[in-house]
Amino acid sequence: MTAATHLLDPTAERSAAARARVPRPDSLDGLTVGLLDISKARGDVFLDHIDTRLQAQGIQVRRYRKPTFTRVAPTDLRQQIAAECDLVVEGLAD
Amino acid sequence: MPELPDGLIIIAKRECPTCALIEPVLHELAQGSLPLTVYSQDDPDYGAGLPRVIHDETLEQSWRLEVEIVPTLIRVEDGREVERTYGWHRGDWEALSGQQPLGADLPETRPGCGSKTQDPGMPEKLAARFDHGSLASREIELGDAEDVMEACFERGWTDGLPVVPPTRERVLRMLQGTTRAPDEVLGDIPPDLVPCTVEKVAVNAVMAGCKPEYLPVVIAAVEAALSEDFGMHGILCTTMFAGPMVIVNGPISRAIGMNSGVNALGQGNRANATIGRALQLVIRNVGGGRPGEIDRATLGTPGKYTFCFAEAEDSDWGSLATERGFAPDTSTVTLFAGEGVQGIVDQKSRTPESLARSFANSLRAVDNTKLAMAGDAVLVVSPEHHRVFSQAGWSRQRLREDLEQLLLSPGDELLAGADGIAEGLPPSAAGKQIPKFRPGGLLIVRAGGTAGLFSAVIAGWAASGPVGSTPVTKEING
Questions:
Q1: What's the mean pLDDT in B171-191?
Q2: Are B304 and B166 members of one domain?
Q3: Measured between alpha carbons, how far is B415 from B425 in angstroms, rounded to an integer?
Q4: Is the pLDDT reported for residue A74 higher than 70?
Q5: Do A66 and A39 contact (CB within 8 A), yes or no?
Q6: Which positions in chain A touch B209 (Cβ < 8 Å)?
Q7: What are the strands, taking DSSP E only, across A17-67?
Q8: Which domain holds residue B106?
């Protein structure tokens, strides 16, 4: 796509034109946190620290790993994370 | 628009023989007292040697000057146009410019050519580019990586099928289909009761796949849906099946190529498919009526994607519209809160009496054979079945009157609990003859292919009539 595409809003324009982010939770109490390793070097080291610190607070943690950082997460992995977690932390850089 | 340059303005294009012919005249005009500005729509070298030639490559100036024919000659005083002429007519050019003689070697007159601003599709393209005041809908900018079709799905704008992305250009082209102003408000669309403008209808008509010439039908359908009698809010919210079904009558149905014949209630005709869909998209997008939210249908019906057809009008039988008080040359939409299609197979009846009894038996199944005066119904009579009646001299009205008689039932048979079925009418029905349909609750329409001794019942919402929805017919005008 060379230039941005513009569409005319077909709705009554009661919602924001940009899709809102899911709000950050005020607290992690009772929530399940997913830690997603995108398979970048040393991402696991970073996430291990986060894991330790969250567990110390009594927060439930689940670990996930993408097959490769070069592609978007497979659909089944995204669906699994969405089904099992309330929020997700991923390590993006090495 | 920026102030026009005083003096003379000429808009021309090289490929127009008349523009080429009058090129020497430009040099004569340049000798006069009025400053001359030439806009060339194609060749930057047109009018070479003149002091002020502008290559109007984007056609913005030609569009702003509303040029339809080239060459066009305009005189401007104090930044305002005072006079224009087009084509070549020596006398007019001399009078307008105040110079003579002009083009002494040229013929007296030559017609001009079409301006490039009038090329097919160009007016909408130019309007989309340069006219930012005429549309009020906000623009949604998509991200570079977004697929435009997917973006429409993700924003919740579709009925589950792909939509045509509503670009400015497409919406402006759609609006060419109506004489109404884009900001005209048709009414408040339920369930959110948001004022619905012609422009928003056009945006959704684009998405549904309509051609501009369908837009007047869509607008009339929206107006009918918004009438108090039709009760669109209830139809949308109900746990029952119904959705707004559109029946089109009159010359426009033929002019825009609607299907009233083979497979009239089925797929495959663009006008039928997209007009019904546009109405549903307006309700979804402008009104906010989405399934699972305000739309609480237990099962719904495939007709809620789209349900629209034309009547196969017959001079013998008149039409649904004429029966409802409209002139035969008037185009109308009739909205009906329709469920699905139930076939009536009768390949043996050759008399109107037999066929009417067949119809009546099938019509009893509307809602439940134990219920009456609940849902309306549309009886769609196919041409082969119609012939049985017309050859026997039965009018539409005669058929209805017979059906009304045939559809009277002893209330005792319909009581709750009768026939071992708990569903049924209250005790007050006991001892009475009960009509199946409320007065005015049976509509008869002729449609379908010419082969097949099959007709159809389209059941209405079980809350038909003043309690819920009454069929509404509306004239289509612009």
A1: 94
A2: yes
A3: 4
A4: yes
A5: yes
A6: none
A7: 32-37, 60-65
A8: 7-118
The Cα of A6 is separated from the nearest Cα of chain B by a number of Å equal to 5
User: Which of A4, A9, A19 comes nearest B144 by C-beta?
Assistant: A4
Residue ranges of A 13-72 with Cβ closer than 8 A to chain B: 13-14, 17, 19
The whole-angstrom distance between A1's CA and the closest CA on chain B is 6
SS3 for B53?
Answer: strand
Is the ipTM value over 0.85, yes or no? no
Q: Could you tell me how many CB contacts below 8 A there are between chain A and chain B? A: 73
Please indicate, yes or no, if residue A61 is contained in any of the structural domains: yes
The DSSP output letter for B108 is S
**Interchain proximity A4–B141, CB inside 8 Å:** yes
What average pLDDT does this structure show over B94-101?
Answer: 94
Q: Could you give the CA distance from residue B461 to residue B241 in angstroms, rounded to a whole number?
A: 7
Which of B64, B99, B118 finishes a domain? B118
In this prediction, residue A41 carries a pLDDT of 83
First to last CA, chain A: 30
pLDDT digits (tens, 9 = 90+) for B158-172: 999 999 999 999 999
Residues B366 and B222 grouped into a single domain: yes
The pTM (predicted TM-score) of the whole model is 0.81
- B166 in contact with chain A, both atoms CB, cutoff 8 A: yes
Show residues of chain A in contact with B143, CB under 8 Å: 4
Contacts of B225 (CB under 8 A, 6+ apart): B232, B244, B279, B283, B335
pLDDT band at A1 (very low <50, low <70, confident <90, very high): very low
Dihedral, B95, B98, B102, B108 alpha carbons, nearest 10: 0
